[in-house]
């Protein structure tokens, strides 16, 4: 018997078609990260204008040892995402955990990065979990009784709107359990010029990253989007405290995707990503709204980026 199954392709098609028909056209940012998109994002992290990776790595170099001194942050490190090849080793070296659990929805990334880490830490038990961490996850039996430190660097939390960010932080709390800790990177609100340069670099790598979404639509869906009819735009939305990435039509344009016709007038945009930035209190309020109490915070000398340690609070009666 044939069983109807929805594939990632179906989800991509459905998101693109629905997103382009929406009153404010938008495509979920996760579709930016195919193989080429992930390579381009890696290239972005090395750009001179893109400060978050460099600064967060510096904070970890200076302060991972401070995290290790807090009791209960020692037994198992649970990484949400495959882990970064520089940041994760810095944390593992400082914490010296008894186990490491990377969680990622992409089995391929997970296996590659786990193998690379195993080579660097041959004695460390690594238990990769292929799963979507937006939902609570049952962790491997081997770490069930261990104290847990979740790790979510990169200010990836900023790519979610606050309502979804709260859902994710709650799911992380359910996954890790009461009394566990979360070490999370959050990018600060700062001068708009600095932010705009970080998301619209002189070498044009972020332009290529954004336009790659249109190439992906043409390659994977039955589509004929003229990529040269769009340009990358980064906007600082002060009211929402976020950088927005858009693809803006540079002329009137029409195209077909999967047999459906779309028309964009010159100047109309497709919203492709948000990157929220957080003031000192914003970060704490977001974490608190999901049951995480901040117990430590480390920043760089310009206060451009924060690495925050939070503890999963037990529910309590409140007035
Ligand atoms: C993955 N994420 C944290 C990046 C950011 O800064 O929001 C994605 C990115 N988009 C353009 N440049 C970087």
Characterization of the model:
A hairpin with a 4-residue loop joins strand 6 (230-237) and strand 7. Helix 2 (35-45) runs antiparallel to helix 8 (205-220) and helix 3 (51-68) packs parallel to helix 4 (87-95). The chain is α/β, with parallel strands linked by helices. It is built from nine helices and twelve strands. It has helices at 8-21, 35-45, 51-68, 87-95, 107-120, 162-176, 192-198, 205-220, 280-289; strands spanning 76-80, 99-104, 129-130, 148-152, 181-187, 230-237, 242-249, 253-257, 260-264, 269-276, 292-299, 305-312. The relative contact order is 0.16. The protein has a seven-stranded mixed β-sheet with strand order 3-2-1-4-5-12-11, with helices on both faces. The chain has a three-stranded antiparallel β-sheet with strand order 6-7-10. The structure holds N,N-dimethyl-L-histidine (AVI). The site of N,N-dimethyl-L-histidine has 11 residues, from strand 10.
